[in-house]
Amino acid sequence: MRHETELLAPAGSFESLRAAVNAGADAVYMGGSRFGARAYAENADEKGMCEAIRFAHLHGCDLYLTVNTLLKDSEMEELGSYLKPYYESGLDAVIVQDMGVFSYIRENFPDLDIHASTQMTVLGAEGAALLKKQGATRVVTARELSLGEIRRIHEMVDIEIESFVHGALCYCYSGQCLFSSMLGGRSGNRGRCAQPCRLPYQLKDRGRVLNSPKESYLLSPRDMCTIELLPEILEAGVCSLKIEGRMKRPEYTAGVVRVYRKYLDQILERGSDGYRVDPADYQELRALYNRGGFSRGYYQVHNGRELMSLTRPSHFEEKGKKAIQEKQAYEKLLESLKKEYLEQDKKEEIRGSFHISTREPSSLSVSFRGLECSVEGEPGQVPQSRAMTEADFRKQLNKTGDTPFRFGKLEIQMDGEVFCPVGQLNRMRREALQKLTEACLEQSERTERELCPRKKEESESGSMKLVVQLEQQKLLPEVLDYPEVQAVYLTSERLEFEQLSEDVKSCHEKGKQCMLVLPAIFRTPAAKLFREKLSLIQRAGLDGVVLKNLEELEFLKGSGWEIPLIADHNLYAWNQEAIRFWREQGVEHDTLPLELNDRELKERGCGASELIAYGYLPLMITAGCLHKTVEGCDRKEGKRMLTDRYKKEFPAVNYCRYCYNVIYNSEPLSLLNSGNEIKRLAPAVLRLCFTWEDRKETRRVLERYIRVFCKGEKPDKTEESYTKGHLKRGVQ
């Protein structure tokens, strides 16, 4: 990181990179041809990315490469050769989501900075501390964090903090969204999100529509604009101010960077006393892009209507005089930005010293950022007619052309009357600036590095255990009578902790293990509750804990509680490097990814993993609360139906204990008819997840799975609607 406080801009193309640099960005983040979270941007190929790194570095700008998707096991074979030329060109950092990718980079490119992507869902100091121990130099915080939560990370962990300050917000916690993937196969975890959050929906309660037809964009947040909050954000410990927008036009990038650069410089030079944003600058940001106005994001609120663009999902009104006027003003602004920042690149100021004499070789020295380069030429000539003046030499040497430099100060020393051919001056200038360019780039370039061979391991296969996960504690007696069930997982969203000890005892009396499933999101409410209940939970005699995020892993390590750990599907393990990472963290079983098909799962290895074979899968985990947005917060949990354009109904549950919503798939996952595929995969554990099913339905589903997977019977024909998830199709 070249700058103590950094303005970080998006670059979805080389033109956007130019726009960002010319407008004053300190760093840019950019995707290459593979593995980035914006697969549909104009991402650079190898030659283009190496050129982008050179361009950025010549202008004193860092470049971070996005490798912020999940990689299949077969793709890990290509990761090293993909990164190698960028590493050698001086790439400053890689933004990473996948812990397998993280481990691979740490092993093969140990001096390359790793930034933990917002897709890792870093929610607090515990997660940041774990990542720092693994070698991360920076965390990109989840967009949902408050300034207080970010400040706590800053105070407790010595790590760089990058946070979004402007641009689009996802409705779901980043890295936890399967909505686009499960509905159409375009996975957000692969950079191909189809943005179902920008579509209209109805919210229903027992068939009654709750939202107005005019407010149908229930999952569409407004864009965030925090220009008025910059002092508070910096005070909280954020060192990198991140602008979203790799899919936006270069002019957008230039315009947003220009405004934020102005106010960041103001704070850095004069402090935050009397800080005030000119309404004209705020209006310019609105004109560039907004969805029904701006919000300040989650920095000062946990959720609420003020964050949402309920009436429209896009920048302009669809029709009317106002829409026409806005579009005209928008085009005029873009043209102005294009002219200022894209028609020519900014020049870096250098110092120069030219000396010419008829008695010794002429010389030109140029210096820039502590570097100095010199070239020599022929001695000056005795003038045949008119001697050259200082102005003549200055005029010719100042013609720096399409180089990234211009002379801020140029000293000319002439010993008496002298003449020099223009061609010689041009050659000396070209050679000096070329040497300076090469010296600048050599500062960050690295020597060629040999890649370590991948470690491929065969996963062990044994007998498959059947386990049941219950959200409703009252259903425990219904499953204890089945000897085929070897373990019960109790989720914590509605768990009566005082009853936990009795539940564990009941399981043990029936010869079954009992595990506790921790919350999907482990922020302040969850952490506070578990600190209060930890002694009670430890005394309950649990056989293991199921983890869903990095915070929980580090929390349990810090508590000193030694207990078997299982990584749920939220802690992604798409490749063998990721599996190995979780094992190194003390995890006994991971859970098979929900987005890989059977062929990819087989290639990855399943012998020490759990397979979810039944259940309503979570499509979104959100800080936003549909109940609060539409009806107001009464702190009462409930299940409502989110209905799309095709009348599909997605159950939406507000879990008030931890203050998050989960939107579930409209149909349950059922692999009852996939016995042959599951047999070939041979997972260690088959898990059935029950949420709101009643006693009768729970028994019916459980008995069907027992007959097929424990007794070897053929499955009954079923007319119920269900999905096989990605077992056959997978994602791109």
TrEMBL record:
<feature type="domain" description="Peptidase U32 collagenase">
    <location>
        <begin position="332"/>
        <end position="440"/>
    </location>
</feature>
<dbReference type="InterPro" id="IPR020988">
    <property type="entry name" value="Pept_U32_collagenase"/>
</dbReference>
<dbReference type="Pfam" id="PF01136">
    <property type="entry name" value="Peptidase_U32"/>
</dbReference>
<protein>
    <submittedName>
        <fullName>U32 family peptidase</fullName>
    </submittedName>
</protein>
<keyword id="KW-0175">Coiled coil</keyword>
<dbReference type="Pfam" id="PF12392">
    <property type="entry name" value="DUF3656"/>
</dbReference>
<dbReference type="InterPro" id="IPR051454">
    <property type="entry name" value="RNA/ubiquinone_mod_enzymes"/>
</dbReference>
<dbReference type="InterPro" id="IPR001539">
    <property type="entry name" value="Peptidase_U32"/>
</dbReference>
<feature type="coiled-coil region">
    <location>
        <begin position="320"/>
        <end position="347"/>
    </location>
</feature>
